């Protein structure tokens, strides 16, 4: 529990830090690298690459090492930060930009869900409360993105916490750790589609590879990140020809590539997320 609390607090602090940096003119790569550096300075590790998804991109965008994207005044930016301490993960996100109404709506959805994170609560009830909060703002939630259970070294385990009433009768258990993350959109698809590769990868399972360089890189990945997502840019200082060897490991089904996720009608998306401990009085772990 001590590690969960520590990871949550550091995640919240680093998310705040990122939000302060996210002003028009800022470079996305700088924001991501500074947040990730602060996580390490705080005595923790990133649980996944900082996600900086713009506008219609809902999730799974992290700047590559040659990404020159500059934040514009009209951009809507989701900052999603994951931190782990010994594999215990805090996952939180916030949206910044000038579409205040859309940002407020995702926060209202999250705030409607948090008090419901109590033992015995059915998942469909949480989804229903989230969708209703969006509706009060005349907006809709994205249905094929959801919150998730978290266990040590496993960012998405077991439970899937819906952002609408999906009829799921599964009940929350006391002591479970879950991430609640409503996505609200001005689009009309209520769905995301898979786009280009994000530069974010995850280890499926390590197995022997012939190539010595690929083998070295795989050993490093298994050791440093375990099954948690990582960015190709994290490997570039240590290893030559990272892109080539990643392709090789993808072909062998050793790695998995996360595609960018965009709202299917290209509407803007906002997100708000906290990691919560399920209790009679739910505890927000990702707070300062
Ligand atoms: Mn997240
Ligand atoms: Mn999450």
List keywords for this structure.
288 residues; alpha+beta; Creatine Amidinohydrolase; Arc Repressor Mutant, subunit A; 2 domains; 5-stranded antiparallel β-sheet; 4-stranded antiparallel β-sheet; 6 helices; 16 strands; globular
Written account of the structure:
It is a single chain. With 288 residues, the chain is α+β, with helices and mostly antiparallel strands. The protein folds into two domains: 2-193 and 264-284, Creatinase/methionine aminopeptidase superfamily (Creatine Amidinohydrolase, Alpha-Beta Complex); 196-261, Winged helix-like DNA-binding domain superfamily/Winged helix DNA-binding domain (Arc Repressor Mutant, subunit A). The chain is 30% helix and 28% strand. The chain has six helices and 16 strands. The chain has a five-stranded antiparallel sheet. Strands 1, 2, 4 and 5 form a four-stranded antiparallel sheet that branches. Strand 7 (147-151) and strand 8 form a beta hairpin. Helix 5 (212-225) packs across helix 6. The mean pLDDT is 97. One manganese (II) ion (MN) binds at residues 80, 82, 91, 93, 181, 273.
Quick recap of the structure?
The chain is an alpha+beta fold and 288 residues long.
- Supply the number of helical segments: 6
The level 1 CATH classification of the largest domain is Alpha Beta
| CATH homologous superfamily title of the largest domain | Creatinase/methionine aminopeptidase superfamily
The pLDDT mean sits at: 97
Tally the beta strands: 16
The biggest sheet amounts to: 5 strands, antiparallel
Helix-strand sequence? HHEEEEEHHEEEEEEHEHEEEE
- What is bound: which ligands? manganese (II) ion
Q: Main sheet: which strands, in order across?
A: 8-7-9-15-16
How would you classify the helix and strand content by structural class? alpha+beta
Instruction: Tell me the Rg in angstroms.
Output: 18 Å
Overall helicity: 25-40%
Total domain units: 2
Distance between the termini: 16 Å
What's the architecture of the largest domain, going by CATH?
A: Alpha-Beta Complex
Q: What percent strand?
A: 25-35%
Low-pLDDT segments: none
Principal-axis shape: globular
Q: CATH topology of the largest domain, what is it called?
A: Creatine Amidinohydrolase
């Amino acid at each position: 529990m001590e590690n969960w609390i520590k990871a949550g607090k550091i995640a919240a602090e680093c998310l705040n830090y990122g939000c302060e940096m996210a002003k028009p003119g800022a470079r996305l790569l700088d924001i991501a690298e500074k947040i990730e550096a602060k996580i390490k300075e705080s005595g923790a590790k990133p649980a996944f690459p900082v996600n900086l998804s713009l506008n219609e991109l809902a999730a799974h965008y992290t700047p590559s090492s040659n990404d020159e994207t500059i934040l514009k005044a009209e951009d809507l930016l989701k900052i999603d930060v994951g931190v782990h301490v010994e594999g215990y993960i805090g996952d939180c996100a916030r949206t910044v930009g000038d579409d205040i109404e859309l940002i407020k709506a995702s926060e209202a959805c999250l705030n409607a869900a948090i008090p419901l994170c109590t033992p015995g609560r059915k998942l469909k009830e949480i989804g229903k409360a989230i969708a209703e909060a969006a509706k009060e703002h005349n907006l809709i939630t994205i249905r094929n993105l959801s919150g998730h259970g978290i266990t040590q070294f496993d960012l998405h385990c077991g439970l899937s916490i819906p952002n609408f009433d999906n009829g799921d009768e599964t009940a929350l258990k006391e002591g479970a750790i879950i991430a609640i993350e409503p996505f609200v959109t001005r689009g009309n698809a209520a769905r995301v589609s898979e786009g280009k590769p994000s530069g974010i990868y995850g280890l499926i399972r390590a197995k022997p590879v012939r190539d010595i360089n690929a083998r070295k890189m795989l050993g490093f990945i298994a050791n440093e990140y375990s099954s948690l997502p990582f960015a190709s840019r994290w490997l570039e200082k240590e290893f030559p020809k990272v892109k080539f060897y990643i392709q090789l490991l993808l072909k062998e089904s050793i790695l998995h590539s996360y595609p960018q996720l965009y709202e299917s009608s290209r509407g803007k998306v906002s997100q708000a997320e906290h990691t919560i401990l399920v209790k009679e009085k739910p505890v927000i772990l990702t707070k300062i």
